[in-house]
Amino acid sequence: MRQLMIASIFLAALAGCSNGEKTARFLIDPPTTGERLPNRLGTTELKDVSLPDYASAGEVSWQSTDGAVRSNTKQLWADNPQRAFTQTLARAISDLSGATVIAEPWPLAEPPRRTLEVRVEKALAQADGTYRLTGRYFVGDSGAGGANQARSFDIVVPMGTEAGKATPATVARTQSLAIAQLARQIAVLGGPGNSIRTSSPPPSSMDDIFSQPLPPIGDS
Predict the structure, then answer these.
(1) 90, 93, 95, 99: CA torsion to nearest 10
(2) Predicted model pTM
(3) Is the dihedral of CA 165, 185, 195, 139 positive or negative?
(4) CATH architecture of the domain with residue range 40-200
(5) Could you state, in order of their start, the residue ranges of all structural domains in the chain?
(6) pLDDT (tens digit per residue) in 42-62
(7) How far apart are CA 11 and CA 8, in angstroms?
């Protein structure tokens, strides 16, 4: 009888642990505004966005009033955070500007004109009641005379909650709004930084080199 009771308790505990309703998953889903901006990026390959460790983990994280970054194993992102951030940003830029911005790997036969790299330094629901997204982005244009961009971003979105009391749903909503603002900034190539012109065409491939005729041999 005792063994039966122990087995019943074990099975009940196991069922409780496997109850999917106790685990909440949150989406990154920026709102669409209907705004339309000029296409300044053309065809662009977006490299996988670089995120801090706490932002690339599967758990939704936030900062408590003691300054610690905390998370809960029952409150998760619905998708891999790096993949979701990258895919969402590419779609948001494309929707805003009409540019063809696609996350790597590039799927089209015609190669992209530009590359876009985003390096996030902070992506955090802060203890002061704001969500902050900071970092730098780089647009590479290998064509002769192309404009290369190296610019920074510092986006702050109020969460509308008491300091240190952010909920995972609030974090997901404000992060989505921050990504939408970042998409707009990149679409207009805005933010502090520099624009650097490509001074020469890309180096020739080995096939191009060996396809050229050899110079004539001079008289000896």
Answers:
(1) -90
(2) 0.81
(3) positive
(4) 3-Layer(aba) Sandwich (3.40)
(5) 40-200
(6) 999 999 999 999 999 999 999
(7) 5
For residue 46, give the nearest of 93, 116, 138 by alpha carbon. 116
Q: Alpha carbon of 209 to those of 48, 202, 205, 206, 217: distances in Å? A: 33, 13, 6, 5, 18
Token match 């830029």: residue? Answer: 93
The label of the residue with tokens 């087995």 reads 7
Helices (H), the chain: 2-17, 53-56, 81-97, 168-187, 206-211
Instruction: Retrieve residue 183's tokens.
Output: 């998409």
Tens-place pLDDT, residues 207-220 = 454 445 555 555 54
- CA 120, 158, 96: angle at the middle one, nearest 5? 60
